[in-house]
Amino acid sequence: MNQEQILTELQFKAIRSSGPGGQHANKVSSKVELSFHIEASAGLTERQKKRVLLKLGNKLSKEGLLILQCDESRSQHKNKELVIKRFLKLLEKSLVVPKARKKSRPTRSSIEKRLKGKKIASLKKQNRCKPDY
């Protein structure tokens, strides 16, 4: 993943933030929307693109755009920094390949322990029954 290349491919849009704020909120566009086209990216290899599309499929629009928004701060610049950090963290998390699970068998002692426990439970329940004379 070429981070510098990806950062140049990001597109930003400033939008008016929702919620209360009085007159100032009606004049200022402090909410930042980040959009990133995964398939058109030159900063990702084909394998990485497939992995990201697979992992983030439910977060993509119909056009294949990943769209993130941030309106946590009153400052547009701060919101832009926050949304970039969030985007990079999301991208790195989606590129992590999980370790392959190795098949393993239970140890002999754990099998014996389990069977012993079952035997004890069985005897407990047998002792609850009425005696057969």
Automatic annotation (TrEMBL):
Transmembrane portions of the chain: none
Region (Disordered): 99-133
Bias kind Basic residues: ranges: 115-133
Pfam name, any one: RF-1
GO biological process, one term: rescue of stalled ribosome
Protein name stated in the entry: Ribosome-associated protein
Single GO molecular function: ribosome binding
InterPro entries the record matches: Pep_chain_release_fac_I (IPR000352)
Annotated Prokaryotic-type class I peptide chain release factors domain residues: 8-129
